[in-house]
Structures are given as C-alpha cells and as structure tokens.
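new request in #modeling-help
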Amino acid sequence: MNATPLADLSADDLATLLEEQRAAYEELRTRGLKLDLTRGKPSAQQLDLADDLLRLPTSTKDSKGVDVRNYGGLEGLADLREMFAELLWVEPEQVVAGGSSSLTMMRDCLFYLTLFGGVDSERPWGHEEKVRFVCPVPGYDRHFTLLESLGIEMVTVPMNDDGPDVDAVAALVADDPSCKGIWIVPTYANPSGSIVSQDVAARLAAMPTAAPDFKIFWDNAYALHHLTEEEAKSADILTLASAAGHPHRPLMFASTSKISYAGAGVAFLAASTANVGWYLGHLGNGSIGPDKVNHLRHAEFFGSAQGVRDHMAKHREIIAPKFAEVDRVLTERLGGRDVATWNTPAGGYFVNLDVVPGTATRVVELAKAVGVALTPAGSSYPYKQDPDDTNIRLAPTMPPVAEVTEAMEVVATCVLLAAAEKATA
Amino acid sequence: MNATPLADLSADDLATLLEEQRAAYEELRTRGLKLDLTRGKPSAQQLDLADDLLRLPTSTKDSKGVDVRNYGGLEGLADLREMFAELLWVEPEQVVAGGSSSLTMMRDCLFYLTLFGGVDSERPWGHEEKVRFVCPVPGYDRHFTLLESLGIEMVTVPMNDDGPDVDAVAALVADDPSCKGIWIVPTYANPSGSIVSQDVAARLAAMPTAAPDFKIFWDNAYALHHLTEEEAKSADILTLASAAGHPHRPLMFASTSKISYAGAGVAFLAASTANVGWYLGHLGNGSIGPDKVNHLRHAEFFGSAQGVRDHMAKHREIIAPKFAEVDRVLTERLGGRDVATWNTPAGGYFVNLDVVPGTATRVVELAKAVGVALTPAGSSYPYKQDPDDTNIRLAPTMPPVAEVTEAMEVVATCVLLAAAEKATA
C-alpha cells in the first residue's frame, strides 16, 4: 500500500497511479454489482428485532382504561408519552405522540407557522415578505427540501463537531427579523455525526433574535442511536430555552423509526406546553386522534424507557461492525493519500466523507456506473448545491457487512481515481 | 298516547301537556343518567369484530416482496390499494392508501391547494383575494371547521334527499371564480342520510364553473355502511367528471375507520392520476411513506374486497337495531304531534332530527341537564349557526341498545317540552 499524498507524487508516479486506478475500476465494472449506500434505512436484521410488534398489543385498553381502538386522544397514548418523556428528558405534558413520521410533524409545524403563525408570531409566516432559515451544513436533505417547497430561503453556516457555528448563527439572527428558524440535528447529526454541546445549545437557546417567533427545529432523530458504549446525552434544549426566557423557541422531534420499524413506528413532538397546545389546536382541525393501537403496541413492546435503551444496544451490535468496516476500508485504501477525510461517528446512521474538492460529483458518477448507488453529491446542502463539490454522505446500515465492504472498496477506488484524474488534468 | 298536533291543542290542553312534560322531565333528572349520542363512534362490540388485526400481519412482506416494515412506498401498499380500488369503483393507480385519518388527507389537500395550488390552478388559493366553498347543509361539522380555520368563506345550499340542491350549486359556481369547491358526503350523508343520485352527481361533474380549479371534496366516508340489505351504490364521480371534461375536479376520500378500527384504520384518496401525482408530490416533501404494516394488516384481515363487504354486514347486524330503536321511540313519543321530523337512514352513522324551529338549542340544553349529551345545536352548519335553530344530529351507534332507548326517551321528552314551552310562551 502506497501512502504517499497525491500532491507529493511525481508526474510519472501520478500517471502510474491513474492507470492503476483505471484498471482497478475497469475490473469493478465486470463484477455486475448492485449495491446501495444511499439512504439511512435499517437492515432487515434490525427490523427483525421488533417483530414481537406483529403480535401486539395483547390488550385493547391502555393503563387508564381507554379503548385504544376508537377515536380520540389527540395528544397520543399517555403511557407512551410518559415513556418517551423520560427518554427525551422532558415532562409528559410536553410530549405529543403522533403518527409514524416525525418528518410529517416537522412539516405540519412549518405549515402551521406559514398559514397561521406561532404562539409568539405577529402574523402568519406566509404574510411576511421573506422568511429565512439558518441551515447548518452539511445537513439533512429532507429538511432542505421542505423549506424549499415553502419558498423559505436558506442561509448556511458550518456544522462543527460541537454543533453549528454559533457565532455565525448569532450574527445572522440578531438583526434580521426575516430569520425565523434553524434546523438542528443535535445528536449524531445527519450526516456529520456531530453532537451539539451543552454550551452551543445554551447559546442557541439564549441568543437574541430579531424575530420574536424564532424557532429551533430540534430534530433529535438519533437521540438514542449510539454506536459505542459511551452514550452521548443530548443537551436539554427545552429547559435551556425556558431558563433563557425563550420557552417557545424549540420544537423537538423524535421517533422510533430507527428503533422499532422504520415505516411503522411512532413519532414524537416535545415543546413548551403553550407550543403543545398550539400544535394540538391546529392538528385538531384535521385529525380526531393518532393510531393509539400502534402506541399501545409500542408501549407493551418496550415496557419502559429502559426497555428502549436495551433495545438500542441490540441495534448497535448489528450496525457498529458496518461502520467499523467503512472506516477500515477507507483507512486502508485512502490513508496517507490526502485525498479524503471522513468521520468515525459515535452514533447515528451516516459517515460523512469529504473528497478532493471538485470531485464529489465525479465519484458518485463513477460509483453509479459500476453498480454502487450513493446519495447524489450536494444532497447535504440546500438546493443540492455543495459549493466545493466535496461532500458525500455514506449510509452503511442497510446492506449486510459483506456488501458494505464491497461497496466501500468501490467508493475508495472511485475517490482515488477521481483525485488522480483531477491531479493529472 | 295523545297524537294531536300541538298547534291544534286548546290553551288548556297545551298547559296540561306542558305540565306533564315538566313532570316527566323532573323525573328524568332523578335518574342520574350519563348517556352520550354526540359523535359517530363505533361501539366496542363493533371494534371487537376486527380484533384479529391484533395478531396480524403474519408476514412482513407484501405480495410483491416489499418489506412493509421499512421506509418507502409513498402511495401505500399495492395489495390494499387494489382491494379498495375495487370497492370504490376506481383504478388502483387512482388510489393512495395513507395514514389512519381521511380527515387529515382532506386537510392536507386543502393545505396544498392553499399553499401551492392544484394541478389546474392559476395560483395558490392563498394568493386569491377570497376563496369560497359551497357547503350543503346540514353537513359534517369537521368539514366546516377545517374551512373556517383556513379563512375559506362558506356558502350554504340545501342538502336534499338526492344530494345538494344542484340548481343552487350551479348558480353559485357559474359566475364566481372565488367559488373553488364543494363538500359532498355522497353516500348516507352526515347527518341527513341522503344519497347523491347519479343525476345530481353527473350535474356536479359537468356544471360550468368560473374557477378553473374547482374541486369536489367527495367524502365517501360511508360508502359501504349500509343499514339495510338494499345497498346504495355511490355515483362514480371520477368517471363522470372525466367524461364531462373535468377529470381533476373530484377528490374522493374514504377510510376503514368505521370498518376496522376507528382510530387505527387506513384512509384512502382517489382521484385522477394527475391529482394523485400532485398529492404524492407534495406529500413526499414531508413523508417517506405511510404505515405499510397497518396496510398489510388490513389486507390480510379482509382478504378481498368481498371480505370487506362481508365484514360490513356484521356491523349492520349490530347497529341497525339501534337506528330502529331511535325511530321507534321518536315515532311512539312524537308521532302525530307535529313537533319534529326525522329520517330513517338506509346507512351511515346518523339520524337527522328537525325539531320546532327555535328550539334545537333548548332541547340540547334540556337533555344535557339530565345527563344526555347531544351534539351542540347548530353543529351541522357552518360557523355552528343553524339559522332556524331546528337541527339536531343524533349518533346512536356507540351506546348499547338499552342506552339508546333511555337516551331517546330523554330526547323525546325534551323535544316535546321545548315545543310546549314555545307554544305557551
């Protein structure tokens, strides 16, 4: 293994490397691969862990005697709200248990803000001349798509290891009343793996904002999704915001999509009781209540908050080796070459790979041509535009380990080939 | 039983009647009743019919091999869409299977129309100076609440036995481009029990509208909810509209809320394929897919479209006697008195009771004071304002028959007492 940085190679050595990688790439083409690292989906083996759900609930009533099969109970099943309140470090009355998608809850909050305004809005956001959102990058593509669909302008700030660049955020929101919100994935961020520190969270909660109704969309999708035994604890944003005099600023979201079933879990919203009332008030115009049978199914399955944590340890056993494999192949194939950096996340669903600037699109294209689907380059940026064309999001949870290995060998070859192409161009 | 119309009674006889009803009412007060005829909820006995759902699905894959536990499949499970396409007389590709609430699907359509406009809109409805909806009355309170929440002005037309007064509708929509839609519950309407005839449906589908993007919200909530063996067939609004050159006019909604579980069923949207694409396009910005496990659970439970029809016969056996009891008590107690008219619906969930104009509010108030909860007077009208204060919606499905009897005795006494009060005032 030659570990000389590409920049230090002679023209001849570079040409040799290019030829080697071209040959390796052509060999890959003959394999007829069909591999997919695009989306953060759990594997069938992970889903199997929750298959007792298929025979639950055993009862049709919750612990308060409510028949879960009938209409009603807009806020969701009390037992399940209590369980997840403990897991999210909030009070049960601050929690709504909803349908199967936290993304839909986020969308609904954006719709309500746009159509009706928030508890602290002067008018509906839709009546403002302009609404802007701060988007730490790289970030979650679906967050950005949602904002784009509503015509909300996106302003980026860097996502650092301890969360968004909070000085940049504070500067943006201090004087611009059109800056109405920020997306944060606080724990094991998609895709950077970052964990928002207590300090950064406290500053986000307390920073002065020109908009009276500034909202932190705190998407805690991976709150419990640890890849090591050292488990990060998410900052308690609701308490921090309340203590700072901005109790209605955060809207927290979570779900069991990557705990029980990806498509048939339960989503949660947590916020100030005023925000909960606001959310339920609008929701109640178009819903008579969520699927409480699925709520009870989950409450029986987990048994307790500790039951959820124990369940997550089983997920870790399945997926941690896949993340280790991503790191192993990248290290062995690209280590010392100075053509890529990547993180080794302590949780979540993604590995963030930064390749030679200007080659991310080429890498994805090369991989696709030999049967390895990667998330399109730029996906982790608003409007799908990565200004440096450097970022690639890898999602290794879904395929079996052997396929992760095979796919990562392809990725490594493509990264090196694209880098050599660029260096010799 | 004295069956003389109140108007024909002498002053003395009227005074006697008033005293008798007052005495009867005071006796009711001593019973300590706690009965509820407010909402169209299925009874526990009806919900029990579907309890095999609690042990389904037996598989985790649909007939095409899709793992229903994972993300994806925005349009819903193919097997279930095919089953309900047959029941709704549409093509599978015209059907979306969603979450547990058709009301939420209607709300989402209104949100999309308001925020983004429809496939045939010149601009989002929210950018129009005014948007109006035609509302046949009496109608479903939640339909009206939804429109009110969005600031959509409601214009009423009478709901006749064969559907809305279509001359009145046609006149309203012909010249007024702000008239953008109409609500229709086509089969066993809430609360009138009306069934929209083929002729009325054809005229609604074909009538010229000043708005290019006029929408019929065709809420077929009770399509299969027959109370007799003579089963009404809903008019095929999609085909009618398509034949009339307005394929995108109707948006059809249905659900299994009153077939399987009220709170944990599956909701459906059916429309032109362009409308389906429009709906899914917007939905996809905030959802990765519906609960396909619940879709498969339902597909396995019913087995086929005929399985759904057979299941509905079991519901009929449970609830038809309750509707018969409502009619029996009203006939025995109020027959010939000329103080009320009511329908004997052939399906659906409601009995529409019209009392002496000006007394509906009083009747509901009197009933409440002795422990019988009725839907607030006016609920079946926009802004909860029944101009004649005459309409009361009775929902007899939830309580056991004995309670229906007891509650209806109270209703009859209150109707008669309020009428006597008014006649002697």
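bot summary: The longest strand of chain B covers residues 153-160.
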